[in-house]
Amino acid sequence: MTAQHLIAPETVPRILLVEDDDEIAAMVIEMLTENGFEAAAVGSAANMDAILKKQSFDLVVLDGMLPGEDGFSICRRLRASSTIPIVMLTALGDEINRIVGIELGADDYITKPFHPRELIARIKGLLRRASYGAISPPQQTAMQFAGWQIDPILRQLVNPQGVHVSMTTAEFDILLAFCQNPGRVMTREQLLRLTHAGTAGPVERSIDVHISRVRQKIESNVREPTLIKTVRLGGYVFTPKVEAY
């Protein structure tokens, strides 16, 4: 895998399930296949690494508790080198684990027991946001702000030094929503509707965690942010001037 993750619209989406419970793995693979996906399952980090060296996938469904390296460690490692959408699927359902999963780079977090149709819906939503299956390229223009450049088509963010900055699907969608609405106070609910970034947990906490991660990547001082400002009892506002380029 490379740091850039682009999905070809003419191909069938390929899902990799990392799950050590054979019964759950068989059920999920069957459900994915019935819904038009190509899917493969492995039971450990080592097996995941081996298959990723040979094949490419469009999304990873990742169990939290695995033999050897656990899902949270795998999530961190995947995110360090790829923007591939990641869904955590785990029995660890308390809020702390949800937040940790998001902070490590997961795009969504589903707890066991789960409804298979919910998992399919979440996967389809993430793939849509990753531009899978678009009939034609979206009519969106690359923009620049405070020396940064963001390209909605290529889904790339470039810093003022010309270096590409890796972002999760949710992080990119939030920053893009801000760039498309500069100077406008955006509530958490509005950001959720625009990006679906809150599906992994409570709306307020999920949005706040994602925005914190975006700030870490674009702000010169995260303790005193100047680009994404918090509006008390309102939400957030993106302050820089945004221009097409």
TrEMBL record:
SUPFAM superfamilies: C-terminal effector domain of the bipartite response regulators (SSF46894), CheY-like (SSF52172). PROSITE patterns: OMPR_PHOB, RESPONSE_REGULATORY. Residues 140-240 form the OmpR/PhoB-type domain. The modification 4-aspartylphosphate is found at D63. Keywords: DNA-binding, Phosphoprotein, Transcription, Transcription regulation, Two-component regulatory system. It holds the Pfam family Trans_reg_C. Residues 14-127 form the Response regulatory domain. Residues 140-240 bind DNA. InterPro entries: CheY-like_superfamily, OmpR/PhoB-type_DNA-bd, Sig_transdc_resp-reg_C-effctor, Sig_transdc_resp-reg_receiver, WalR-like, WH-like_DNA-bd_sf. Signal peptide: none annotated. It comes from the Bacteria. PANTHER family: DNA-BINDING DUAL TRANSCRIPTIONAL REGULATOR OMPR (PTHR48111:SF4), REGULATOR OF RPOS (PTHR48111). This is Response regulator transcription factor. It comes from Sinorhizobium numidicum. The lineage of its organism: Bacteria, Pseudomonadati, Pseudomonadota, Alphaproteobacteria, Hyphomicrobiales.
